Amino acid sequence: MKFPRIAPVLLLLPSLVRADPTSGGAASIEHLPLAGFVEVTSLEQLGNLVVTDTKLGQSADTVTQRIVVLRSEEIEHLPTPNRNLAELMRHTSGQFVNVLSRNDANWGSYAGLGPKYNSYLLDGLPIDAFVDAMSLDSAAIDRIEVHKGPASVLYSNYLSMDFVGNQAPLAGTTNFVLKDRVDAPLTRFRAGTGAWATHVGNAYTQGKAGQLSYILSAGHERSDYTPYGVPGSWLQTTQSPRYEKDKFFLKLNHALDRPDHTLSLYYQHTYHQGNMGRPNRDFGHHYDTLNLAYNNSFASDWHLQFKYGERRYDRNFANDAFPASLALVNHENTRQTIRPIDLTLSHRHGQGALLTLGVDAQWVDYETDVRDPAAKARAENRAQARSTGYFIQEKIQLEEWILRGGVRRNTLEHDYALLSGNTPATTSARWSKNLWSLGTRYNMAPDLAFYANAGSSFMAPAAKQIGGTVSSPATSGELPNPGLKPESGIGRDLGMAWQPSRELAIDLRGFLNTIGDAIVTNIVSAAPSQVRSENAGSARALGFELDAHYSPSATLSMFANLTRTHTRVKDPSNADHNGTEIPFAPSELANAGLSLHFPGNIHAEAYYHWVGRYYDSTSRGSRQAFGHFGLINARIYTDLIQNARQEVRLTLDLNNLTDRQYRMPFDFRDPGFNAFVGVDVRY
Q1: HSE-CB for 30 with a 13 A CA cutoff
Q2: pTM, entire model
Q3: What is the domain class of 9-682 according to CATH?
Q4: How much of the chain, in percent, has pLDDT values that exceed 70?
């Protein structure tokens, strides 16, 4: 097993990219006509291409921005103590992954910006970086492409009304690429048990029937868990915060008349229920995720993609009157449906040039209700949103130079029927914005490349930020701010990718991200837990990422990376905020890892993660400081049986080995050391 390739894919493939056309390497397929491309491309060759840069498979040395790829075999061996997809990227540079608990979202940062500036994609269609990372099953994922730098031309914002609202790909985008073509049948059963009476079971099967590839999976997880809040806070418990999760997904891919003419369907349902450690703090959430995709290569050098998705969120919470009383106060229900579509045309022309153009849109329905103990319901929020984007991008190759440029026209419309239980004075809002993106890459030598990129983004305030979720002074949630203005930003980066030897790869990337009228989420109260979104003037994040990966032998692999960031908020009209740091963005992040293969078929991996100082607000008067801690996670596994018919693997996870029960924002706390042992049987 290898560690995640912290160096970009191009450093792993120099021999493939510049191979002789007769060798079957990536260069031999790069200039093929789009019609028939898939038919003559093996699964291994397809896996060595990246799709996020242009929405179509491209060899890595033609990408102007840095893309880190985590493949399925690597994903299976990465520690995820909170069962959250965001944790799969914890040890990549530039990302602060800060999952609050197994029942809560990741509240981290990307390239010095807060959690809403790196969008998440599922096979190129946007998903929610907060909610969907908690619900989606990693078994459905073939690889993860972490696209660093501005990506707002080809990919739209995600118009979520929940959590901190809209999410924009200013600092980058993370694309979870689903498994598609099935090369061999496989059935597997997994089971495990661990700390806090955690029990997990999963069944998975994949196969082919003619031109139809299919994947089916179902799993169940339950745990008594353990208190994950600061003692005496609003998260104080009187009993075990038990939870259960049930997941099911189906993936179908049908080749209609040839391998590059396909129709595919993905559907996942997750039911997450439990309580937060008090008698009247139960919850029950339903998540449904649908992707429908049609692909067709035609007219030799044209490719058509049409994608449609549905994301349904039904989240229910019960609230008590803690600390005054444990009696039930009300039930809150949030329902949100988001329907994204994307129609993209790709045209390969000239000597390796690629034109990408298309249109995308989203439709959003958002509702929240409150039901009192007598079961009387009261509507709190009713809102709808729509977005439309038209985009075009050209990428050309001039020998060692790659040049890329694109523009987008974005229009967003919001309708507010009800906010905070009242008909608002402003019932609609509309924004239009022109966005741009430029990039270049110079492949100086087979083992050395330089790149630079810049692009703009635009983000409107969400209904939740304008209308809030707090129905009474004692209720936890978000306070309303009807005066919020939209924000805009520009992302820039400059980098170098170098592979001085077959064993060693080094990357250096600098970035500068600026935002005008930045919308930040500030903590107003800890008990009850209340936040408010506010415009904080302008914000600036300047930093660099340094990565190294060293694999001297097949039995030893190492990596290390360092991210340094300097952030500032400029708001001369507010002395309390002016000159402070951007919330949730640590000044330093560092990671290191070691993978060893021992005699007796024993494999061991260890990961170290260091987080520097960061704050939860731009307010000097009320913010709290966090960070300055290190984490060590380890995994040991061995194959008890391994032959052509069956494989049985035993795995031991040791998380937070030094038992660091560090504090996190919103009064969360890491529960400390925990262990998990599992068995994986494959046929």
Answers
A1: 27
A2: 0.91
A3: mainly beta
A4: 92
